[in-house]
Design goal:
Blueprint lengths: L1 E4 L2 E3 L5 E2 L2 E6 L2 E7 L13 E4 L4 E4 L1 E6 L37 H8 L2 E6 L7 E9 L5 H4 E11 L2 H8 L8 H24 L8 H4 L2 H4 L5 E5 L2 H14 L3 E5 L7 H7 L3 E3 L17 H9 L3 E3 L11 H10 L4 H6 L3 H6 L17 E4 L10 E6 L2 E5 L13
Helix pairs in contact: 4-7
């Protein structure tokens, strides 16, 4: 049993206690609340107490869209497994089969208090394959896995155009991207209806089998969209086929905020810390996520690592606040909201009884540039601790 006591507890579920406690057993949160007249629990012989006095205790941060371990740092071509650039339609590909947990970015994530991430293929293909949701500590991806498949990647705009027009093949236009996606979804729906609706005993097709959880409503489309017209095309196609979807990047979302809200789809905004390296991100700005959030869109903030570095996630939230976003909404956009958008809020994203004990202790709010992560816990296990943080002797060798 572990007790974290004395810190300012921000649950992200509504409660904030200036001096609170957390009880953790077998990797889960089993109790939490304000401290009144000392510790509200018996100090049993096997209890480990972590004193967080003067610190902030929060749920672990969540990156809702990145390419950690699939585009490895410092490895060049040998470590780049993000895009299979020979066929624009590849739903059968799985990020799970290409993530290397030895990528240095995972250590950087832990030191920044990021305890889970949605990782998947890039945007060179119209359909890129499936994402997975993982915890950020481990050496074996199968042990780190929380959900796979977690989303199906689709892409609009410049990236598929640039990749395939250079090969003298489709898609070379936005019209072709939309047409190819609609044709793929049309065929995938026919396969799904034959297999799962009419229950006909058809021979399974490896390519179309990947679409079954999408049409079952178990996972969303994950749409790479920057420009306002691409956002609206993605919405149009998802509505046509009755599918759920997340709007990833959504760089011009603030220009059509009312339309994004009307769609009902959440927005994963960023990477605003990166340069405006192509035409479709010319209106990229830190104000976008705050404008969408105020409009009533559920928002998450992304680094799109390695486009901008994973450890900059809390700083991106801070810059969104600087550009007008509400502070608590910015914090929720790197904790609770990405958990909800990634359909993992039953386990992570807030401090609540029964949820995974993914807990981070900061010396200041993480959106402040000088804030330091003092201790990171995943499933109740300390996976990172700053050497200056006073852990119990039995917990120092982490």
């Amino acid at each position: 049993m572990i007790y974290i006591i004395g810190g300012k507890v921000i649950t992200m579920a509504g409660e904030i206690w200036e001096k609170g406690y957390l009880c953790i057993e077998e990797g889960k949160i089993t109790g939490l609340g304000p401290m009144v007249n000392g510790a509200p629990f018996p100090l049993l012989e096997n209890t480990t107490v972590i004193n967080a006095l003067g610190h902030i205790v929060m749920p672990g941060l969540i990156e809702a869209h990145c390419h950690m371990g699939i585009t490895e740092e410092k490895k060049g071509m040998e470590g780049d497994d993000c895009n299979e650039t020979v066929d624009p339609i590849t739903p059968q590909l799985r990020a799970l089969d290409a993530i290397n947990p030895m990528d240095a970015a995972f250590d950087d994530a832990l030191k920044a208090g990021i305890t889970s991430a949605m990782i998947g293929p890039g945007s060179a293909n119209v359909v890129g394959g499936t994402f997975c949701f993982v915890k950020t500590h481990g050496r074996c991806i199968d042990d780190m896995l929380a959900l796979s498949p977690a989303a199906m990647k689709i892409a609009f705009g410049e990236n598929p155009k640039v990749n395939y027009s250079g090969q003298d093949k489709s898609p070379a236009t936005r019209m072709a991207i939309a047409a190819m996606l609609r044709e793929e979804l049309f065929q995938a729906r026919k396969y799904y209806e034959k297999k799962c609706v009419s229950m006909k005993r058809e021979e399974e097709d490896f390519h179309y089998e990947a679409w079954v959880p999408v049409f079952e409503g178990k996972i969303p489309l994950k749409a790479h969209v920057h420009r306002a017209d691409d956002i609206q095309t993605a919405i149009r196609i998802a509505k046509e086929f009755g599918l759920s979807m997340t709007l990833d990047h959504c760089s011009e979302g603030h220009l059509i905020a009312e339309k994004v809200k009307e769609s009902g789809f959440p927005a994963i905004v960023g990477p605003d810390l990166a340069s405006r390296s192509k035409i479709e991100v010319q209106n990229m700005a830190f104000k976008t996520v705050g404008i969408l959030n105020k409009e009533g869109v559920k928002t998450a903030i992304t680094t799109d690592h390695p486009v901008s570095l994973i450890q900059s996630l809390p700083i991106c939230a801070g810059l969104a606040v600087k550009s007008g976003m509400d502070e608590m909404e910015a914090l929720k956009s790197i904790t609770l909201y990405p958990a909800q958008i990634c359909r993992m809020d039953h386990r992570v994203g807030s401090l609540e009884v029964g949820k995974d004990a993914d807990v981070v202790i900061f010396d200041k709010l993480p959106i402040q540039v000088e804030a330091k992560c003092m201790c990171t816990m995943i499933d109740g296990r300390i996976v990172y601790a700053d050497e200056s943080f006073p852990l119990p002797a039995s917990k120092k060798n982490v």
